[in-house]
Amino acid sequence: MDKMVFKGDIVFTSIKDKLEIYEDSYLIVENGKVVKISKVLEESYKDYPLKDYTKKLIIPGFVDLHLHAPQYPNRGLGLDKELIPWLETYTFPEEEKYYDLEYSRKVFTRLIKDLWSVGTTRSVVFASIHKESTKLLMDLFIESGLGAYVGKVNMDRNTKKELTEDTATSILETEEILIEYKDKSELVKPIITPRFAPTCTEGLLEALGSLAIKHKAPVQSHLNENTSEVIWVKELFPASKNYASVYDDFNLFGQTKTIMAHCIYNTDEEIELMAENGVYAAHCPYSNYNLSSGIMPVKKFLDMGVPVGLASDISGGNSLSMMSIIAGAIQASKMKWLETNKELAPLTFSEGFYLATKGGGSFFGKVGSFEEDYDFDALVIDDSSLSDIKELTIEERLQKFIYIGDDRNIIARYVKGRKIEKPF
Amino acid sequence: MDKMVFKGDIVFTSIKDKLEIYEDSYLIVENGKVVKISKVLEESYKDYPLKDYTKKLIIPGFVDLHLHAPQYPNRGLGLDKELIPWLETYTFPEEEKYYDLEYSRKVFTRLIKDLWSVGTTRSVVFASIHKESTKLLMDLFIESGLGAYVGKVNMDRNTKKELTEDTATSILETEEILIEYKDKSELVKPIITPRFAPTCTEGLLEALGSLAIKHKAPVQSHLNENTSEVIWVKELFPASKNYASVYDDFNLFGQTKTIMAHCIYNTDEEIELMAENGVYAAHCPYSNYNLSSGIMPVKKFLDMGVPVGLASDISGGNSLSMMSIIAGAIQASKMKWLETNKELAPLTFSEGFYLATKGGGSFFGKVGSFEEDYDFDALVIDDSSLSDIKELTIEERLQKFIYIGDDRNIIARYVKGRKIEKPF
User: What is the CATH number of the domain that holds A378?
Assistant: First the structure.
């Protein structure tokens, strides 16, 4: 387990602008971390166990920076409404069910199996308001061997009665999970998860910000997804400068590491604040299509220095596959390019790939790349069924896999050097 | 073969606004055509052979109204350019290869196998300029049992030297195919295929229009895909009123049944002309994303009475699956809705499904629906892997299949009542 050599066609990105390609090379792993990549296997590594994936692509595992586990049964359903009515009509009624641990287990095992299938080795996940169900989700992730941040959702207003928490209980339960799961697993960690500003009172947000700082715990929420939501937040928080500063005012915006999903309608000021505070943007192109939200100007965020990753946003998004989400993000950026009169350049292929690997992976630490000392999270891709007509370069093979491949092409998954078998 | 009963959960659209759903019902087929659907199997049909697909969905086969067979090796590649440089850099160099019949066979058998896989039972296809390769493609479609219109491409200017036809030869070879394949197969027919206005001289267009009328042959081409292309056409055809009327002036715009791919930048006048002449629009959402072309206002075409179908446009498009193209078309229409200040309503789910079945199918005649006397082109969908968490309605099951299913869910394919096995 602690020393290994992988042989194959190795591809990753250390910067977004360029793929690093090592054809038919050796990647040395020690204690779950990348030591080096070399064209010739050096003498000192010749006694390491060799995993021979010759002619296969070896790429970093995918990172999904935003998805809702309890919405999984709704994947592909209920996509005829915008955000707020969608929440009320389809989503809250589903999320209500997770007091039921048997149902929770059924859904979560299925979700985790499917994440494994599509090669998502790390994800950042919303659970529901239910404490026990949230813990179950974390335990199941631990059992699977995949990496995840999982957050119990906090909501104490503006939702169904059944999902409206008592503020004090919400805070207590959140802290209980933070303490219980802080060191339970190296790969699965808790994250503070106010659903979004409209469903949280100021008192709740304030307490969650304090918990974040007290426990050095990360934070996730939603920001500027839909124009009606943006107006609503302005009405609910008249004292805050803008939507981003609602979170910032309560220490939930980069005071500890933070992800904000969507960020379609950010003002320049809000983007700047994200850059300054190091707040991640989770770009969810399919969800933003499905709920008629709009297209996030990803390139602008990258240009202004905001860390960005990609996300499925199940079940606003329908696709769980980061391959198709990379393609979707590049496609959406081309429409944004037209919309901005060709000012905001479209994402390149390497940028798309970077966002789904190192871009989101950096939220987890040294994850999403094969640079020295990075966790060896990897997928082995047998693309022979995609590349059997004409000779292709390694870059073209990767591009074919991303644009037209699927889980059938993924023949092995590793997290921190450990091979992960199909869970459950 | 000529009498059959199918049992299952039957779904189709006769009008775009509503799914027709027959739960656990019987569909009677005689001589390849739908006779009726009933909840209870009537006495007179009880001795017909029964295909029992209980609990499975039975839906019309998908129709792909526009794709380029010789571009298949490029699927998922070369998506970093707009139309004209994309043609020059990636597409023409690939299309040049089809003088080679061995390479043609390798590509076309793969394409047809994959069309079979994803449940596309009828397609309208561009071949290349090469006569023999075009004939081979038609023969392979005939062998497969799938339905298709296949066109030898005509180009006599503004392309690579190797792809520039002598005008007279281009016309002669086109007519040769029209005659040879007119009655060779009931399911595979020739179609006249000027690539697009810029690569055709007026002499060529005029002759092709005459051939269309002489042989009552259908026509396909491209229209208003990219803003630079539109400007170029204006320069090349100063005498024509607009891009659409270039084709119309030469009897290539509905004088016989006609499909125009893309139609993103049509003026109202051009849309009206399509409606008047009954010219089909083939909407190719993924291609239009990939080549940064823009988003077609599909709803406007529907509202103005233009017949519309969906298409993969391989290899400008990356996805061959009409399921994902339905989802893509609905998603794109939502962005168009935002872009038009919420004036042009997004496509509904039933509209998307209609476009990929009866919408495009009507180009083939009574195809794409299960109304009486329609060809029984059908897919049998085992969606049990998609619907195993909670109870779903039949409409929800279909929606899940479209949004998150794939070829693994398709367990049988029929064309005109005949079961089609995996070809080659």
Answer: 2.30.40.10
Strands A153-154 and A193-194: parallel
For residues B410 and B1, the model is more confident at B410
User: What angle do helix axes B202-214 and B167-181 make, rounded to 10 degrees?
Assistant: 20
Tokens of A177: 């999970």
Q: Decide: B181 and B165 in contact? Cβ < 8 Å.
A: no
Interchain pair B389, A106: CB under 8 A? yes
Distance (Å) of CA A421 to CA A121, A123, A408, B120, B408: 12, 17, 15, 34, 22
Give the H or E element holding residue B201. none
Whether residues B23 and B164 share a domain: the answer is no
Least CB–CB distance from B73: residue in A294, A389, A399: A389
Q: What's the confidence (pLDDT) of residue B1?
A: 54
Q: Are strands B410-415 and B418-419 parallel, antiparallel or unpaired?
A: antiparallel
Q: How far is A151 from chain B (nearest CA, A)?
A: 22
For A229-288, how does the pLDDT look when each residue is reduced to its tens digit (9 = 90+)?
999 999 999 999 999 999 999 999 999 999 999 999 999 999 999 999 999 999 999 999
Res B344 pLDDT > 60: yes
Contact yes or no for B309/B280 (Cβ under 8 A)? yes
Per-residue pLDDT reduced to its tens digit, B115-173:
999 999 999 999 999 999 999 999 999 999 999 999 999 999 999 999 999 999 999 99
pTM: 0.98
The Cα B251–Cα B212 span in angstroms is 8
By the 8 A CB rule, do B382 and B39 touch? no
- Does the residue B424 lie in any domain? no
B82 and B102 together in one domain: yes
On the question of pLDDT at A387 being above 90, the answer is no
DSSP code, position A48: S
A389 and A278 fall within a common domain? no
Who's near A333: CB < 8 A, 6+ residues apart?
A: A295, A298, A299, A344, A345, A346, A347
Q: How far is B27 from chain A (nearest CA, A)?
A: 27
Q: What is the mean pLDDT of residues A34-58?
A: 97
CB contact under 8 A, B334 and A404: no
- Whether B404 sits inside 8 A of A318 (CB atoms) is yes
Helix (H, G, I), strand (E, B) or coil at B2: coil
CA distance A384 to chain B (A): 13
B109 belongs to a structural domain:
yes
Contact A331 B294 (CB under 8 A): no
Question: Do B290 and A331 count as a contact with CB atoms less than 8 A apart?
Answer: yes
The answer to whether position B158 is within a domain reads yes
CA distance A249 to chain B (A): 31
Closest Cα to residue B87, out of B325, B320, B312, B291?
Answer: B291
Instruction: Provide, as residue numbers in chain B, all residues whose Cβ is less than 8 Å from the Cβ of A79.
Output: 330, 349, 403
Residues in chain B with CB shorter than 8 Å from the CB of A75 are 400, 403-404
Question: Among B97-101, B132-136, B204-208, B387-391, which is the least confidently predicted range?
Answer: B387-391
Please provide the DSSP assignment of B235-303 as one string: HH-TTSSSHHHHHHHTT-SSSS-EEEEE-SS--HHHHHHHHHHT-EEEE-HHHHHHTT-----HHHHHH
How near does any CA of chain B get to the CA of A407, in Å? 11
Best probe of the A interface among B403, B409, B424, by most A CBs < 10 A, is B403
> Using the beta-carbon criterion (under 8 Å), do B292 and A337 form an inter-chain contact?
yes
What mean pLDDT do residues B207-213 have?
Answer: 98
So what's the pLDDT on residue B387?
84
CB neighbours of A149 closer than 8 A, spacing ≥ 6?
Answer: A123, A124, A125, A188, A189, A190, A191, A218, A220, A363, A364
Test B292 with A77 for CB contact under 8 angstroms.
no
CB contact under 8 A, A110 and B77: no
Shared domain check, B337 and B214: yes
**Out of A76, A348, A392, closest to residue B403 by CB:** A76
A76 plus A41 within the same structural domain? no
